[in-house]
């Protein structure tokens, strides 16, 4: 009977081990699929059709940074009015006086382009309309860009210039989607909506690290409780292990992709309590050692 019980216990542990390994292999396949299905970077173009013989103003927009703490998205705009045999000539001289107006719905910026002068790149900040860093790693953000161009010094003195806006939709550590939005009645130009979120592999990695914190806390509190209740013998080496866990948790927290400042919701729900659980397990081990001598 004893041999039969040992055999049953071994089979149960083997089944549990196989299930755990199968779960790890499944997670590995899912991560590989997330990485492989990431679409390649591309340029998205939005264009206004010229009403007559007007030459359009080409604008190339690139997202330089997304700062969720300051609720800001920064664009760089390059301008061009003509083409040569090698392609569109950006940062070349303007062929006429033009004024470009940009707005994010709250702040407006005017960019003057003067005939014969180089059209230097311009940095344009956009306020994030919706989204907050508290939702890390599932935080999402939206921002809008309204852009229009006029001949001369402004819309009151000249006709609108058709635009050809090209946007590069790739930025490290962010997934960016762009789409044309409806303009208000009587408005000229283009209006583009930006939808920003963290890429799927980063979300998976951050979620996994938080799950590892929970597992470490469970191990610490279980080991400390079993020793304190005399279910297991006192082991002073366990104190060193738990002490290492205390300092390992902040390291795990800080290596997360795009690690946010301390205080997001995930810290309140996971990091704070796992750190307290590990410290509690260490305190129970030390208390048991001090009591039993």
Helix content range: 25-40%
Strand content: 25-35%
CATH architecture designation of the largest domain? Sandwich
Q: Characterize the overall form.
A: elongated
Strand runs, count: 14
Number of helices: 4
Q: What is the succession of H and E elements?
A: HEEEEEEEEEEEEEEHHH
Give me the CATH fold name of the largest domain: Immunoglobulin-like
Rg, nearest Å: 29 Å
Whole-number total of structural domains: 3
Mean pLDDT: 85
Biggest pleated-sheet summary = 7 strands, antiparallel
- The poorly predicted ranges are none
CATH class of the largest domain: Mainly Beta
Distance between the termini: 39 Å
Q: Can you describe this structure in just a few lines?
A:
The chain is α+β, with helices and mostly antiparallel strands.
Can you give a write-up of this model?
The protein has 293 residues and is an alpha+beta fold. The protein folds into 3 domains: 1-37; 43-197, Immunoglobulin-like (Sandwich), CATH 2.60.40; 202-292. 38% of the residues lie in helices and 29% in strands. The protein has 4 helices and 14 strands. Strands 6, 7, 9, 10, 12, 13 and 14 form a 7-stranded antiparallel sheet that branches. Strands 1-11-2-3-8 form a 5-stranded mixed sheet, with no helix packed on it. A two-stranded antiparallel sheet has the order 4-5. β12 (170-171) and β13 form a beta hairpin. α2 (200-228) runs antiparallel to α3, α2 (200-228) packs parallel to α4 (265-292) and α3 packs antiparallel against α4. It is elongated, with a radius of gyration of 29 Å.
